[in-house]
Design a protein that fits this description.
569 residues; alpha/beta; Beta-Lactamase; Heat Shock Protein 90; five-stranded mixed beta sheet; 15 helices; 17 strands
């Protein structure tokens, strides 16, 4: 196939040598003549086919009247064809070939009819067809129609000739316009490339703006948490009042819990947070963290709940559920700067209508400023926030959306400016029953020297705190700085009763690989892995390895190690 330069050369030759254009025009005329002949035959065949179909319909209609020699009914069927002005004559003939009924506009009908192939003669089409019923001959029908006049056909072919001449003319001027078209195409390509570069720069700018908004919001929130924790520690050093120390400890614990939840929110957005679904009772779960919810709101925000008995259980990740409710509540708080009522309500939504299965509806309504439809369409987008720079990450409602979708549900927002907002989560009904957890018992130290734990952790600060927590529980601790060092200690014959390892460590052997190698030598060996951010968390859960999510408490650590050691024992 000719390239771009080949087509340009062809256009130049056509302009330079008119003989080429004449030759192409003659070829076009020959092709058009052939097409005209083909078209004439196609028109003839199609016209005969249409008349044959009408004859077949007439033959089927007059079969019964001919069988009963009902001339009047036969004439009625024939007269129905008078509406078609192209039909010049129609006749129905009996089994003896004589005319029974018919009409004609010009030439008389044949006195007798014989069956022969459809034909075109003297500008007329003639069709004869037999009439039979159940294989018994009853007669025949005769149809004569005018073929398309030659004047009409000539007009059509003149039109084709005009098109051919115009095509020849276009070939003559094609070369003149080709250069201009090529130049315009080059300019268009340059403009497209410039626009692509500009759009890429705009996307990069938007990414940086979004990241700046995210980091500003995260820094703002973490600075608040660090301020609460550092101030609490400083005040604890300056007081000896046990009651005040207890309050300060509680405040520090709350700040740390909020920091953990913020980190969990970021991990959920990054899709690195392991999901642990459980069947829960919504009313019980909200009641369990009601204090945390109240502490996250201002005193002028009143929380009212409408959670009737009999609400169906749902299967979700409990911590993600709490974070989602808290995110919606915090957004509602910020929408009510002057205070107001926050209403949390739930109801069962049976299958039927728009719902294909049972769901539970959890709605959180505020009396705030509300939002315009344009804002409602954007609130679930990551990084989108209506708050000022440094006053929000823009991940709150996107976390809600991700949580609900991961649970197999849907979420919607109904908002009217000046009338408040209602966020509704529709979660699938769970088939099981809520898990009843026993009351958490305080960590019980093990007998001194009873158990030895190999601690694999590369971060010095985390390793030191983990060692102190283990020693507080009564375990003897041997620490390794990474997976390779831990495996070397095991190879040298170090006697240990359990492994506590970080998931992410430098080198070729991370926590998951270390656990695999040790369990390969000692199947079922007690292993507890720690993680704060790990794409391998799901793999650890699939292999049955116990996982502790950072930050964890002393009670969490004691329960995990005890469960692993008792399982082996």
């Amino acid at each position: 196939m000719p390239g771009r330069s080949g087509w340009r050369g062809l256009a130049d030759r056509l302009l330079a040598r008119p003989a080429y254009a004449v030759m192409i025009a003659l070829v076009l005329v020959a092709i058009s003549f052939g097409l005209a002949v083909q078209n004439e035959g196609a028109v003839r065949t199609e016209s005969l086919q249409r008349l044959t179909v009408q004859g077949e319909i007439l033959a089927g209609s007059v079969a019964a009247p001919l069988a009963f020699d009902d001339r009047a009914t036969t004439q009625e069927y024939i007269d129905a064809l008078k509406a078609n002005t192209d039909i010049e004559a129609v006749g129905a003939y009996g089994p003896d070939g004589r005319l029974v009924a018919g009409f004609t506009r010009d030439a008389p009908l044949p006195a007798a009819n014989s069956i022969h192939p459809a034909e075109v003669a003297h500008g007329e089409m003639i069709v004869t067809l037999p009439v039979a019923q159940a294989g018994v001959p009853l007669g025949s029908v005769y149809l004569r129609a005018a073929f398309e006049p030659w004047t009409h056909r000539a007009v059509r072919y003149v039109g084709i000739a005009v098109v051919v001449l115009m095509a020849a003319l276009l070939i003559a001027v094609f070369g003149a316009f080709y250069a201009q078209a090529a130049e315009a195409n080059q300019r268009l390509r340059a403009e497209i490339e410039a626009r692509r570069i500009a759009e890429e720069a705009l996307r990069q700018s938007q990414k940086m703006e979004a990241m700046g908004q995210l980091t500003g919001g995260v820094a703002h929130d973490f600075n608040n948490l660090l301020m609460a924790a550092s101030s609490g520690l400083e005040l604890m050093e300056r007081t000896s009042d046990p009651a005040r120390q207890a309050r300060l400890k509680q405040g520090i614990r709350q700040a740390l819990d909020r920091g953990a939840k913020l980190t969990q929110q970021l991990l959920t957005f990054a899709r690195r947070s392991p999901v642990k679904p459980e069947v829960i009772d919504i009313a019980e779960r909200i009641a369990a963290f009601r204090d945390l919810l109240d502490r996250s709101l201002r005193e002028n925000v009143i929380v009212r709940t409408d959670l009737p008995a009999g609400i169906w259980p749902v299967e979700v990740d409990p911590s993600q559920f709490e974070v989602a409710v808290l995110n919606i509540a915090v957004n509602a708080r910020d929408a009510m700067p002057g205070g107001g009522t926050l209403t949390i309500s739930a109801r069962n939504v049976p299958a039927g209508g728009a719902e294909d299965h049972d769901r539970v509806s959890l709605s959180i309504a505020d009396e705030g400023e509300g939002m315009s439809p344009e804002l409602v369409d954007k609130v679930f987008e990551p990084f989108f926030t209506t708050k000022g720079v440094g006053h929000g990450t823009g991940l709150g409602l996107s976390q809600v959306y991700g949580f609900v979708r991961a649970a197999g549900g849907t979420v919607r927002i109904d908002s009217t400016p000046g009338a408040g907002t209602v966020v509704t989560m529709l979660l699938p009904r769970a088939a099981g029953v809520p898990l009843v957890r026993p009351a958490a018992a305080p960590a019980v130290p093990a007998a001194p020297g009873q158990r030895r734990v190999l601690l694999a952790e590369d971060d010095e600060a985390v390793a030191d705190l983990a060692r102190q927590m283990l020693e507080e529980l009564g375990y003897a601790v041997t620490r390794a700085a990474d997976g390779q060092a831990a495996l070397a200690l095991v190879d040298r014959g170090l006697e240990i009763d359990a492994l506590l390892s970080d998931m992410m460590m430098p080198g070729e052997i991370d926590g998951l690989a270390l656990a695999r190698r040790i369990r390969r030598r000692r199947p079922g060996f007690p292993v507890v892995l720690m993680t704060g951010y790990s794409a391998a968390a799901a793999a650890a859960g699939e292999e049955g390895l116990r996982l502790l999510t950072k930050p964890f408490t002393l009670d969490d650590l004691a329960a995990a190690l005890s469960a692993e050691i008792e399982r082996e024992g």
